[in-house]
Amino acid sequence: CLYNSCLDSCGGSSFCDPNTSLNNCSQCEPITLELCMNLPYNYTQYPNYLGHRTQNEASISWESSLFPALVQTNCYKYLMFFACTILVPKCDVNTSQRIPPCRVLCEHSKERCESVLGIVGLQWPEDTDCNQFPEESSDNETCLMPGEDVEECSPSHFKCRSGRCVLASRRCDGQADCDDDSDEENCGCKERDLWECPSSKQCLTHSVICDGFPDCPDDMDEKNCSFCQDDELECVNHQCVSRDQWCDGQADCLDSSDEWNCVTLSKNVNSSSFLTVHRSAVEHQVCVDGWQETLSQLACKQMGLGEPSVTESVQEQEQYLQWLVLHSNWESLNGTTLHELLVKGQSCPSRSKISLLCSKLDCGRRPAARMNKR
Amino acid sequence: ILGGRTSRPGRWPWQCSLQSEPSGHICGCVLIARKWVLTVAHCFEGRENADVWKVVFGINNLDHPSTFTQTRLVKTIILHPRYSRAVVDYDISIVELSEEISETSYVRPVCLPHKGQLLEPDTYCSITGWGHMGNKMPFKLQEGEVRIISLEQCQSYFDMKTITTRMICAGYESGTVDSCMGDSGGPLVCEQPQGQWTLFGLTSWGSICFSKVLGPGVYSNVSYFIEWIERQIYIHTFLLN
User: Which residues of A touch B85 (CB under 8 A)?
Assistant: First the structure.
């Protein structure tokens, strides 16, 4: 930033704010390409030697699929290392200089692996002309060569017992891919430090257990995640809230799941059916006294349906106690949900409940694409 | 869209164009309710701020908005919390518009599938978008017909990626008709027996569409996310306080 401009990773330029320090302008950036996360260096610089301007572009590139697949053929021990030195070139954080691979590393990779690509009708990536890379020199500073400890497989591979690399997606996929079948050994979830769905035996990473998103077919990964008291209910995020707070119009769960699906129609939604509210997670009928059409519209909209087509009152036959009635001044409550306008524990003079039919929202039709007679 | 054809105004009234200056069209998107649009999460990488976006409906030629065109600003962007940039899984997002659109013959929502509703392999569906055609970027909306491919068969095309139940594959082995860059977020729709069109996929990723490597396109599986979609719309509509 000595001359008041920064080079961002795309090679453009933008003006620094005055307090930008020199190291903010370094063109080195941490390696995020999963394929190359086990290199003996951690910083890279773009554009790379394949013309990709960002790591994101490199991650969806043809080469980022080609090289890991090619590594499986065992054509050259250091092929993955070479691939990463051109996909995410090393950047020396002190000098912000890009360090290329040595020419001999490129030549060996190409000599031994190009013919393998030829067998399947593919070519060696055009942009990797080895002459662009410097000869190896004694000080080893001007270009990169693999050290003895360099990893032959990438983090996207599984290393067979024999030392070969197969793609991680082939580990425990039911087909032996390693020359010694070791990719199909120890495939139990526990052996791979994974969580096992009791019924389907599917393996899950521990990070998705009890995270509010079911992954096992029977949702078992979201069961037994918390232990609520008898007078409490469990939110989707496994927090416990008092039963009285369920569907009371106020979100008490951090994920607001105590206020989800509070208003429903009894099962058969195609014929008139009774409006039901799940206050305290108990089904309540809604008393018709004081009811207005706008409330029917709110009920239908809240259920994701269209306009109300039928609103009726139906006499309740037996002695019914679970009534919800309209709040005395519900109109001034400017509530956004129907159930927060209702209160429980009062009698229903008419002893009649709401029966409601909502139309379905129109969708998926394209009137303008009509066939016009000619 | 590779191997498709130019569409006509009104044929896909749910198709929208997600735009951000100075680039203009960035991604496709799909109208699912008067105030709500679906697209994919990866379209927002590096542009997570709702203020930089607008959504254009009822347009066929990007260069020539018509009297049917409606433009809205974006109020809220909701990315799926499990969206993974590295493996492009859970690639879906919901966009709340600044105000409702007016439903016309040229701007109308598509139907959503039921939770878990499956598509049989070899079903034919349609993809649309203003993405790359292999040799150029079009101004006019392109459409193509693709065939649903089973997840097992799809996995065989993509060694480096894991095809999950959050994905749908469609296209052809030869890659003749396929979505491409710029189509992301656009619809994969299938006509239902009653004649209504239903949204089953959102264009998400695939091989480099105009490269030597061919194979099907991969779409976010909308019916996997139905409960999440409905819940987010409910929360942002009714649980405001």
Answer: 56
